[in-house]
Write a structure and sequence with these properties.
Elements: H1 2-25, H2 31-37, E1 51-52, E2 55-57, E3 62-63, E4 68-77, E5 80-81, E6 86-92, E7 98-104, E8 110-116, E9 121-129, E10 140-141, E11 144-149, E12 182-187, E13 191-192, E14 197-206, E15 209-210, E16 215-222, E17 226-227, E18 231-234, E19 240-246, E20 253-259, E21 268-269, E22 273-277, E23 287-289, E24 294-299, E25 303-305, E26 309-317, E27 328-335, E28 347-351, E29 357-363, E30 369-377, E31 386-387, E32 391-396, E33 415-421, E34 425-426, E35 431-438, E36 449-455, E37 462-468, E38 475-480, E39 486-495, E40 501-503, E41 507-512
Parallel strand pairs: 3-11, 13-22, 25-32, 34-41
Antiparallel strand pairs: 1-4, 2-4, 4-5, 4-8, 6-7, 6-9, 9-10, 9-11, 11-23, 12-14, 14-15, 14-19, 16-17, 16-18, 16-20, 20-21, 20-22, 24-26, 26-29, 27-28, 27-30, 30-31, 30-32, 33-35, 35-38, 36-37, 36-39, 39-40, 39-41
């Protein structure tokens, strides 16, 4: 009898375990229905593996007083959506006042509620679910989202003094000449288009001539009230320095150059250079308030033609959820497969605005191929560097479709051209790799043996496919089915009649959901 009972219990356990994956992937029943089917008691913790999300519509960061926003989200557990659950939306504003909005989920686990922005300031929202069952379960919280409400006619925080506008080759008058030391700073424009680069030139001189190899601090400010982090440069032999930053609206900005020989010496600072945004840029999505240092980067178009402008934007969040305002970031590029750079700049400096938002517009590389971009916050001896998420970018030849095989000029006999479609690929959606052998002698026609290798980390390679008796200029199509998010790497090799192994460039395929 004990054996029979044990067998029955084991069968029940196996049935439940078999049902759980099916429930997670596609749940045709409500949460309450699953409780009935599986005979789950009321004393169980349903928040295990549960998820609570929050969205803001319209998803724009900058708003005006009087705008109404819609807060929505979904509460779902391991057995599907949690219906009839009370949701609390915690609402904070710039004055640190906290209020609460109350709503509940429908049969699909979705909740919706509206809020009215009544006055300028920064608003943050977070959804909270407090389980009502008497078990040891913690409150669930969504990501905290932040938006800001600004007056439409007060996007600039000051009216700059025309005497200090840096335009063209005009030099800003030094503010002081004490000690015979003068510090100058100029810019190539008095206004800036958001996302575009602005160049600055500085100089440090004394009565005896230029001060060479001196450490200077480039200081950004919102108006003359909120100072950002100094960016350190060093003067050249002639006492000059240059800086270039991609700037972001909506505020007007001022910049100055500061020189101090050492801690015991006085500071010498240039007069400010004022810059006013000359155009309206994109309205970014709501900022996710992270608890740790985080950079969120976005790009709208992942496939562009050679030298076409690419706009990258995002948020820099410091520790404890504070926005990294007026902070210097680097746009860094990575290029796979042995492609040449064609003298494309390796990185670009970006400056966040007063809310930690950044926007950067640069031309894409000239050479077609697969690239990846990221935004970097430079670290120091005590703090490691921080990186954003990686953004894939496909650069196609001018006036050609990205899914066509690129006709690369043959500079030496025997080349392997390898491409993928689509880019980026999607999980569990079939794509293809095309391989073409180009520039091989006719004597190779009966001897070409093609080997294709794959990798998930570009370090460990495995044989993916082999094809014998490949004809020169024949296009080989190989299906690929990505199984998870990340990157897939492919390369091909072929031996010619002289026994020389020819290698293709490394093909990188980003895989997204």
């Amino acid at each position: 009898m004990k054996g029979i009972h044990f067998f029955q219990v084991a069968c029940i356990i196996l049935l439940v375990l078999h049902a759980i994956p099916c429930v997670i992937t596609a749940s045709p029943y409500s949460h309450d229905k699953w409780k009935e089917i599986l005979a789950i008691g009321e004393d169980k913790d349903y928040t295990i593996a549960a998820e609570l999300t929050l969205n803001i519509e319209p998803d724009q960061y900058y708003r005006k007083p009087g705008d109404e926003i819609v807060l929505s989200g979904i509460l779902k557990g391991i057995f599907g959506p949690l219906s009839g659950s009370d949701i609390i939306i915690e609402r904070k504003n710039s004055s640190s006042e906290v209020s609460y909005l109350n709503t509940s989920t429908n049969d699909s686990g979705i909740f919706v509620i509206t809020d009215l922005l009544t006055e300028p300031g920064i608003y943050s929202y977070q959804a909270i679910y407090e389980p009502d069952q008497k078990v040891n379960s913690k409150n669930m919280k969504s990501e905290r989202l932040e938006i800001t409400c600004i007056q439409s006619d007060t996007t600039t925080s000051f009216e700059p003094d025309e005497r200090y506008l840096g335009t063209g080759d005009h030099e800003v008058t030094p503010s002081d000449k004490k000690g015979g030391i003068m510090v100058h700073l100029t810019s190539n424009t008095s206004g800036f288009i958001p996302g575009q680069a602005v160049s600055f030139s500085g100089q440090v001189r004394s009565d005896g001539g230029p001060i060479a190899y001196a450490k200077v601090s480039f200081i950004p400010e919102v108006g003359l009230s909120r100072t950002g982090e100094p960016v350190i440069y060093q003067t050249r032999k002639d006492g000059t320095m240059n800086a270039t930053f991609h700037l972001t609206d909506p505020d007007s900005l001022s910049f100055s150059l500061l020189y101090r020989k050492n801690r015991n010496e006085p500071e010498y600072q240039s007069d400010p250079v004022f810059l006013v945004p000359s155009d309206t840029a994109m309205n970014p999505p709501a900022r996710i308030v992270h608890t740790s240092e985080t950079i969120d980067a976005f790009i709208d178009n992942t496939s562009v033609q050679s030298m076409q402008n690419v706009t990258l934007y995002g948020w820099y969040c410091k520790k404890e959820g504070e926005p990294g305002f007026l902070s210097a970031l680097d746009l860094v590029w990575y290029n796979f497969g042995g492609k040449v750079w064609d003298q494309y700049p390796n990185s670009s400096k970006i400056l966040t605005n007063g809310y930690g938002f950044f926007e950067c517009t640069v031309p894409a590389p000239f050479t077609p191929g697969m690239y990846v971009m990221a935004v970097k916050r430079e670290g120091n001896s005590t703090t490691p560097s921080a990186y954003s998420n990686v953004l894939p970018l496909t650069v196609t030849p001018l006036d050609e479709e990205s899914d066509e095989v690129m006709d690369v000029p043959v500079s030496s006999p025997g080349q392997i051209l390898i491409n993928a479609t689509p880019v980026p690929a999607r999980v569990l959606e079939e794509g293809t790799i095309s391989v073409v052998l180009s520039g091989f002698d006719s004597i190779d026609a009966d001897n070409l043996h093609l080997s294709i290798y794959s990798s998930t980390n570009s370090i460990d390679w495995y044989l993916f496919d082999e094809i014998s008796s490949v004809l020169p200029s024949e296009e080989i199509i190989i299906p690929v089915l990505p199984e998870k998010e990340g990157y897939l790497y492919f390369k091909a090799t072929v031996d010619n009649h002289e026994g020389v192994t020819i290698h293709s460039p490394i093909l990188v395929i980003p895989v997204i959901l």
